[in-house]
Amino acid sequence: PAHWTFLRPFQHGLLADFDAAEQVVRQLLEGRGGKQVLASAPAMAGEIELQVFAEMLREAGCASLCLLPSAACLAVAAGHPPPQYPAVAVLELGYQLVQATVFSRGTAVHQLQLRGGAEELLQRLQEHLLRRHWLAVGATELERLLRFVSVRPGREDWLEVRGKDLQSGLPRRLMVAAWELDRWVELTLQSVLRMLTQLLEETPPDLLQAILAQGLFVGGGLGGLEGLSDYLSAQLSLPVQVLERPDLAVARGLATLLEDSDTLDALVQSQVLAGRLG
User: Fold this and answer.
1) CA separation for the pair 161, 145 (Å, rounded)
2) Cα dihedral value 105, 107, 111, 113, nearest 10
3) In whole angstroms, what is the distance from residue 271 CA to residue 168 CA?
4) pTM to 2 decimals?
5) Beta strands in 106-151 (DSSP E)
6) DSSP assignments along 179-226, one per residue
7) Rounded to whole angstroms, how far apart are CA atoms 23 and 20?
8) Per-residue pLDDT of the chain (278 residues; tens, 9 = 90+)
9) Cross-strand pairs, 66
10) Using CA atoms, how far apart are residues 9 and 255, in angstroms rounded to an integer?
């Protein structure tokens, strides 16, 4: 509705609106005891960005903070805490940011990131429906479509899309061939594949051997795409495992670390960009 104002306190995994983010965190901390917070941020975030993030949490009432790279939390959710393995490779397909990281004994030895993810795919679907079918589709319907598009080849089914007809201005239901929308998914993933190819090419042979044995672990909101693991595995020639509820993988990793102080301490000691702040 026109009289609503939407705020995104966090964008690309980092702070975008200090005051709005502080209000959100303050509500989350309300009524809780010591207010010790375990949080995550993109592994390649700059020192100033991390300090601002930490300052926001302090202003919101956080007494002490431990900040970890989100990629490390994803690896913990996969059951492969980085300090315990010679090599772990993870891919985080977030809403606005994609990260790929190779860990060795807890340290991120190689990492790449790019802007994109689910937001880029939703924009492409929206633009396609406007140009091809003269159908204006809202954010809620686009989010629904994201659960049905896939990278599974040879689909012959149809998807119902609901929106507003640009010519008549009236509501309209449209049946669209699944392959017509799926091709935008594959196009969005091309930049991800290029990034992963570069990551593997620049990974030392000894670490690559361990990665080939256990595979690549995938989390993030876009990780729920149907057929994603088979598609990436075929393109990269290595096993790929998409975590259960990939959209919550980082949060599950943080929750696991709350109950495993030994692994948490090992991560804090080994991670270059992690530490106890305050």
Assistant:
1) 8
2) 120
3) 57
4) 0.88
5) 107-115, 135-136
6) HHHHHHHHHHHHHHHHHHHHHHHTS-HHHHHHHHHH-EEEESGGGG-B
7) 5
8) 788 888 889 887 788 899 999 999 898 888 776 678 888 888 778 888 888 888 998 888 888 888 888 999 999 999 999 989 999 999 999 988 999 999 998 888 899 999 888 999 999 999 999 999 999 999 899 999 998 999 988 888 999 999 999 999 999 999 999 999 999 999 999 999 999 999 999 999 999 999 999 999 999 989 999 999 999 999 999 999 999 999 999 999 999 999 998 988 888 887 645 444 43
9) 38, 276
10) 22
Question: 169: left (phi > 0), else alpha (psi -120 to 50), else beta?
Answer: left
The residue to which tokens 């672990």 are assigned: 217
264 residue type, one letter: L
Looking at residue 22, its amino acid is E
